[in-house]
Amino acid sequence: MFVIKCPHCFEAREEEEFSYGGEAFVARPTSPETESEESWGDYLFMKRNPKGWHWEMWGHSTGCRKFFVLKRNTANHTTVGAWTLAEARKIYDAEEATA
Amino acid sequence: MLNSTTTNISEFSPVMQSPLHPFGLTSKQEKVNDGKGVWANEIPLLGYISLRGNSQNAAFVNAVNSALNVALPTQACSMSYTAWGSILWLSPDEWLITCKRDQRASLQGALETALADIHSQVVDNSGGYTTVLLKGKNASEVLHHCTVYDLNMLQAGKVVGTTFGKLNFYLHQHEDGYYLVFRRSFADYIWRYLERSALPYGFGIAQLNDGL
Ligand SMILES: [Zn+2]
Fold first, then answer.
1. B77/A17 touch (CB, cutoff 8 Å), yes or no
2. pLDDT tens-digit profile of A57-94?
3. pLDDT in tens, B62-110
């Protein structure tokens, strides 16, 4: 159990109020019809699944029912922060650019 | 297939019943006394209006403010009490307006007129929700059994959406009572959960004068 600060409710809440929404910013192929089965399968199923820092989506299911982005360490549940999708995108892109 | 013995549609007269009607709360209510630690009752058959729109859009906020004659709470988890009921912030673009049932149509009409040209949504949800009022010296203890929310964080003027057992509900506190707002279909579960959680403290059905 850990605590998440919802970027819409601006309050730290129990994990139980939230639901996990998978890895964040997985780019959907722009034309699924012409995508090969292999790359479409990769898009659907091949996630980074790191041990360590992970950008992921969460939904505040019992609260504001909005989705947002959380950067969480999968090994020990520490979190760096939670942002709206638009805010997180900028930080994520900057981080990816230097990675 | 329709049965020929079915009541003729012209004779069909639906009866409005609150979600907690089967518990017969009206006949069990008594005057609040020191003998029991927790008092509750349903505030039945209120009007509920769902309002959606962009709170960053000044035209939307102004239109709502003038239609309701009260400022729309745009701060996260804030709410306001009005002469006719309350406005609960549910999310950055969604509010729940509660009022007396017979005022619902006029409030909804005023909102629809004011928001006619603005991207927004106004929906009558009166059939979808109900409210339970919980009070008494052990009311907080009972709620602690029911929700993961830290009730010390719940000041007046605040509304939170959080868990109730396996479900979710909206919770706010006003004067000496907690107001639990939830979906109609959750009523049975929530009422029984409250009854059982309150067993150690004594559970009574309070007389209701609150018309919130
Ligand atoms: Zn939230």
1. no
2. 999 999 999 999 999 999 999 999 999 999 999 999 99
3. 999 999 999 999 999 999 999 999 999 999 999 999 999 999 999 999 9
User: What is the distance between the alpha carbons of residues A22 and A70, in angstroms, rounded to a whole number?
Assistant: 10
The ipTM value here is 0.90
Q: With bands split at pLDDT 50, 70 and 90, how would you rate the model's confidence at B2?
A: low
Instruction: Give me the residue spans of the domains in chain A.
Output: 3-98
What is the band of B5 on the pLDDT scale with cuts at 50, 70, 90? low
CA of B69 to the centre of ligand 1 (A): 27
Choose among B43, B161, B185, B153: nearest CA to B94.
B161
Distance A4 CA to ligand 1 centre (A): 10
Comparing CA positions, the residue from B41, B64, B37, B44 lying closest to residue B142 is B37
Which residues of chain B neighbour A10 with C-beta distances below 8 Å? Answer: 76-77
Asked if residues B67 and B115 have their Cβ atoms less than 8 Å apart, the reply is yes
Contacts of B161 in chain A (CB under 8 A): 9, 17, 60, 62-65
According to DSSP H, which parts of chain A are helical?
A: 37-45, 85-98
* C-alpha–C-alpha distance, residues B180 and B136, integer Å: 15
Structure tokens at A12: 């730290």
User: Domains plus CATH for chain B?
Assistant: 25-45+128-205 (3.30.1360.120), 47-124 (3.30.70.1520)
Q: Are B129 and B184 in contact (CB under 8 A)?
A: yes
Fold of A3-98: Folate-binding fold (3.30.2270)
